[in-house]
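fyi for ur records
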Amino acid sequence: MQAVVISGPFQMLLESQATPEPSPGEVLVSVRAAGICAGDLYIYQGKNPYAHYPVIAGHEVAGIAERTGEGVTNVTPGTPVVVEPFIGCGTCYPCRIGKSNCCVQLQIIGVHRPGGFAEYLTAPAPNIHPIPEGLSFSDASFAEPVAIGVQACRRGNVRAGEYVLVLGCGPIGLALIEVARHRGARVIAADVQSSRLAIARQLGAEAVPADDQLLPTLLGHTNGEGAAVVIDATGNVKAMEQTVDLVASGGRIVIVGLVKRGIGVTFPGLDFTRKEMTILGSRASVNCFPESLQLLVSGAVRYPKIATEFDLTEAPRIFAQIVENPGQVHKGLLVPKVERAGS
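which gave:
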């Protein structure tokens, strides 16, 4: 098979490798679409401390179940599927309480084990979900980022009629907008890039610049109260720290964006009591893929139309271009040309 291998920071090439065989309890997936995520770019740039080179990245994967290993009963070969990339140990405290996304030994397909920037990958059978009829591989590959949106909206208990402010309108931010709107929330979206705000506006959000007038602008849209829920998808410390000013009294803050290990985020202690706010972390997703796929196939989530498809062979060029000019491609998909297993 052909695989895109990252051998070190800014070192990416296309290699021929043996097609993997599914172990007992695993499924061999013929990859048909794999989304390029910020996490993949971090690996490419040498910014992910958990990735050990060489690595095949790619964790937003849709394809066809090609073969199954011994003992697999929930997947039939030939079924269109998506791959849930997070693998918990099943025994630690988070796993025991249903939070395998927070597993202390979490394994991520595309980070700790080979991912979807290849013609084939293997994954545990419980991580395989059938694609609903009528959903293309390209659109289905968005199941993972949409699941992150579902998780965050569940964590923040987003409800109909509430004002929800989404900070950051990248692919994850757009997923948050779509999921929150589907729940009936009145969504306000903020970003520093006008091109991203334009897409947020097309999706039905009230799009506003993330500038030094963001707070008065938000108050003007929310009857002076602030947002019932503020969801940060920026990974920017300044934006995270501003959430305490933007949230309404009694409201909820959900932090989705990631900061580098060791970097602190400071919140005024008095505001915790005065506003009686709730601040929540939201990591990846757990038990969200079924809802995510239904949102996609029903058309409730429309933003997959922002994607640009590239052949697997174009990966080195596309990654270099995205790093040099992040706004050039809003969302890239790598689409392998697969003929048959064993190639």
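The chain has eleven helices and 17 strands. thats all i got for now
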